[in-house]
Amino acid sequence: MNGVTRRVLDPAGLGPACDALHEQHGRMQMAYALERDDGGLEVRYLAAPGSGQAFELWCCRPADGRLPTLTDRAPLLGWYEREMQDLFGLEFGGHPEPHRLVLHEGADPSVPPLRRAAPPGEALPFVRAPWTEPDIDGEDVQRLPFGPVRADVAESAQFVFYYLGEGILHYYPRLFFKHRGLEKRFEGTRPELGVVLAERVSGVGSLGHALAYCQAVEDACGCRVPEYAQWARTLLQELERIYNHLHYFAILADATTLKVGNAQGRLLEEDAKKINARVTGSRFLRNMLIPGGLRRALSGLDGLEDALDPLRRAVERYLAKLNATPSYRDRLIGTGVLTRRTAFDQGATGPVERASGLDRDLRRDHPYAAYESLPPEVTLAETGDADARAAIRRRELLASFTFVSRLLRAVPGGSLRAECRPEAGSGGLGWTEGPRGALYYAVHIGPDGQLGRVKIKSPSFSNWRVFPFTVHGTDMMDYAINEASFGLTIAGCDR
Fold first, then answer.
1. For the chain, where do the domains classified as CATH 1.10.645.10 start and end?
2. Is it true that the peptide bond before 148 is cis, omega within 30 degrees of 0?
3. What secondary structure letter does DSSP report for 107?
4. Could you report the per-residue pLDDT of 98-135, keeping only the tens digit for each?
5. What digits encode the pLDDT tens for the residues 50-95?
6. pTM for the whole thing?
7. Cα angle at 331 between 329 and 141, to 5 degrees?
8. How far apart are CA 411 and CA 386, in angstroms?
9. Helical segments of 380-458, H only
């Protein structure tokens, strides 16, 4: 893996390595398991020592299928360890939450689902079993399970509230009702076709997933992408950011009962998607990327800036009206506070972490595509509340219009793509900074040249881990606003 320092550690060395990372002001990013050719398991930890420093990949072989938990040092790894426990059958000694995460209670697979021996296409057998829930006592404490079927077109999830009056004592999200096993689906697929799957992990992040995946494959084969393709990829990622942030503000307006604001935000989002279709033929920017570059050149670039300019002016007016509405700001200020410490410990990413004062952005810290020559300006806030999260997205949205204008004034020449043929046994890491935060793909090529293991770390997987810490101890009337302010997706988590 290019640009990544690889370290081999034994289980006893994981804790000291994690302590040393934090002393350098670094942070863990993710952990995942893979099955080696000899049938044994290996766990890989991705660490980011600090801005501008190369990522570190720690490789560790479990002893008899067991590793010590790192949650006491890096709490954000709690979900990754539980995911490996469910899908690979590993054990993490001393884990504070050893119950299942991805596999709901009652699932009884004969073989852990991501092991090679797992029967392909076989439905998981289930038996009736009680839920594992927090033990919260008190005769006046009420319990409210909400979902998994919810109103409108919301994705399936269940949220269990324990509350007194209007005060939420504890909040327990139950996700993964529609986990699709996409990482398993990649196995055996030709690398050039894997991008089709990546685009469908999360519909509103199609371009970001495709880009991170392609960069991982390109890293695996040492492919150098032509300048024009790098430029086009950057342009498309900023167009994805624009329509996602407009969708965010429409949902936030709806949560604060601004129905006209919701309708106007959705109309602006639709206008942005029409521009996407003009450039790529797809409102969701699909079918443009391929390992090595682009499938075809962008269309409709002539006059694109003239088309974006009225949209930008309309967006500026829309955001100004929202921000000047007292009932809107009053509901955001002080709602769902995420402290800087919790954001760091639990692994917040994207606008959520930057709203809590953490200065991290992959476009600047680990640049890719054209961001290396055109680094973005990263904005921060300190209060960590819903108002701060909205402020970060407001600035990023307007900055994306400016960024796209800069790109359109410097269109490079060059070919669409380079040859990209990863060798058997190679591996690569790719990443993007999407509208919701850091997105990683780790790709491992099997001995037959097909995809052997693909790991997806999505921003919503990280931010769903963080979100409950802003709900405990808050008011029921603020919950919908707090959830909207995080901009979460279920599909991005239930991969």
1. 182-486
2. yes
3. B
4. 888 999 888 888 888 999 888 877 778 888 888 777 77
5. 777 899 999 999 998 999 999 999 999 999 999 999 999 999 999 9
6. 0.95
7. 165
8. 38
9. 386-408
CA dihedral sign of residues 226, 228, 230, 236: negative
Structure tokens at 103: 């596999």
Residue 71 gets the label, from left (phi > 0), alpha (psi -120 to 50) or beta, of alpha
Residues carrying CATH 3.30.460.80, the chain: 4-132
Say how many CA atoms lie within 13 Å of 455 toward its Cβ: 25
Distance CA 241, CA 285 (A): 11
Distance of CA 218 to the CA centre of its chain: 21
Residues 41 and 92: their CA atoms lie apart, in Å, by 14
User: In 3D, which of 339, 236, 222 has the Cα closest to residue 284?
Assistant: 236
The string of DSSP letters for 140-166 reads T-EEEEE-SS-STTPPS-EEEEEEETT
Reduced to 3 states, what is the DSSP secondary structure of residue 23? helix
- The pLDDT score that the predictor gives to residue 110 is 85
Give the largest Cα separation in the chain, rounded: 71
Closest CA to 451 of 469, 432, 424, 433: 424
Two structure tokens written together for 6: 């690889």
Q: What angle do helix axes 386-408 and 479-486 make, rounded to 10 degrees? A: 30
CATH C-level class of 182-486? mainly alpha
**Quick check: helix, strand or coil at residue 174?**
strand
Query: How far apart are the C-alpha atoms of 433 and 480, rounded to whole Å?
Result: 26
Superfamily (CATH H level) for 4-132: NADH:ubiquinone oxidoreductase Nqo5 subunit (3.30.460.80)
Residue type (1 letter), 113: P
